[in-house]
What does this fold into?
Amino acid sequence: MLQSSPPHESQWSPAAPAQRSPRDLAGPWHSEAACRRDEAGLFFAPSQEPTAARLSREQAAKSVCARCPVLLECREHALLQPEPYGVWGGLTAAERRVVLSRRRRRDTAAPGSRAAEIPRIA
It folds into this structure.
């Protein structure tokens, strides 16, 4: 029997109104995402999730991401948006904040940037 969409997609409802799943996006990489075959709850935390449960869930989500053929596209999407919740491209929201912070520092210190031209006083 051919179905128009996987059964779990019709049952999925986000934990918070602003949350989106990688499967909600339109884009050339979207249809190849490994997360299309997994429950969205794996990628987004329920409210007041205990730390041990969160770490376990995030590790399981990252395992799905690790086998995803579009991991880098998903990750870059989450960094450019920026996506404030969930595991995207194999990174948690906290890990994405670190990557973005490092990018900002790198871009600020890049040769030819204004910050690189200002001498530092110790």
Residues 83 and 108 are 22 Å apart (CA to CA). The chain has one domain: 27-115. The chain is about 45% helix and 0% strand.
